[in-house]
Design brief:
9 helices; mainly alpha; 337 residues
């Protein structure tokens, strides 16, 4: 039988963890089996016969315990020392393994918890990215509609401005044609008046008025017809002149009566023609002034419309570039969303 004092001295209490890994389980079972066998061999040596006859001795484990108990009874106290030393070393090794296993388990828990934290952070970040991406997609959709409307508006503005230029050019052409015709009529009227004045002044200086009139009868008729035609044309263009129409009517009336024999009547006709010539000259001056103003106004409007077209074209190009970029971003986000 082994020395119990030595046994008690060398025996160490082993604390097993609540969770034992599958790799350490066979070693721990073997250790427990050794201790059980020792206890049985020490405390039940006197009952070997009863042990041999026990039901458990028929199993493999029971047979091992009985055989081990019989073996221990043949050993002296000193023969147990190597066993105790081996058990102490085994205990130390198991405790070291247990500590290592606990540390590994603790490290694994830290890694596991960190993985969970990283996963949750990544999940939250991904959800935030999804919300942000959806908002970006919505904003891009709004931008797409906005730029399309800008392009359509720029195209409408350009078309309207081009149409306005056509109308402006047509109005300008009509205005120039009217001005040209007015100038021609005024020039014709002045030429006719100058011709009439030359004839009447020749009559005024003639020594034989009756003979002069008779000799130049056809010339008087021609000048009268020219004056009447010119006066009618100019009269239609100068309705705003308060003294112009009465002068025209007076000259035609006098020319019809041919009151040229009387010097007073002749002088009156000459004075009226001189007044008419001056009035027509003033009319031509105003025509030129109005035409210059009309040309300036036309150029200003034309420049304004051309500038508007240029701005609309630039706006359309910018909107088109922005639309292309927006469509590209939409394609990228829609592809990877």
């Amino acid at each position: 039988m082994p020395n119990r004092a030595i046994f008690n001295k060398t025996k160490k209490k082993i604390h097993y963890p609540s969770q034992i890994t599958s790799t350490n389980l066979p070693s721990m079972k073997f250790t427990a089996l050794l201790f059980v066998s020792m206890i049985l061999s020490i405390s039940m040596a006197a009952k070997m016969d009863a042990l041999k006859n026990a039901k458990c001795s028929k199993s493999k484990l029971g047979k091992f315990i009985v055989n081990f108990a019989e073996f221990t009874n043949t050993l002296s106290d000193t023969d147990w020392d190597p066993l105790f030393d081996a058990l102490d070393a085994l205990t130390d090794s198991l405790e070291d393994q247990l500590a290592a296993a606990q540390q590994a388990n603790s490290d694994a828990e830290v890694v596991h918890n960190n993985l969970i934290i990283n996963y949750e952070n990544n999940r939250d970040s991904a959800n935030s990215d999804i919300v942000s991406t959806n908002q970006t997609l919505a904003d891009l959709d709004d931008d797409q509609v906005y730029y399309e409307n800008q392009i359509a508006q720029a195209q409408d503005d350009t078309a309207a401005d081009n149409e306005a230029i056509v109308d402006l050019n047509e109005a300008r052409t009509d205005r120039v044609n009217a001005y040209t015709q007015d100038v021609e009529d005024a020039d014709s009227g002045i030429d006719t008046i100058d011709e009439a004045l030359a004839l009447l002044r020749s009559l005024q200086t003639s020594s034989d008025v009756s003979s002069f009139i008779q000799t130049n009868d056809q010339a008087f008729i021609n000048i009268k017809n020219k004056l009447q035609k010119s006066f009618e044309s100019l009269s239609s263009k100068k309705r705003s002149h308060s003294r112009y129409r009465p002068l025209l009517m007076a000259v035609v009336e006098i020319m019809n009566k041919q009151n040229f024999v009387n010097q007073d009547g002749l002088i009156k006709v000459i004075d009226l023609l001189v007044d008419l010539r001056g009035d027509i000259s003033d009319f031509m001056t105003k025509l030129d002034s109005d035409e210059a103003a009309a040309e300036d106004n036309y150029q200003a409007q034309l420049d304004g419309l051309n500038n508007a077209i240029e701005l609309a074209t630039e706006a359309q190009a910018t909107a088109q570039t922005n639309l292309d970029n927006t469509n590209g971003n939409l394609f990228i986000l829609s592809t990877f969303h």
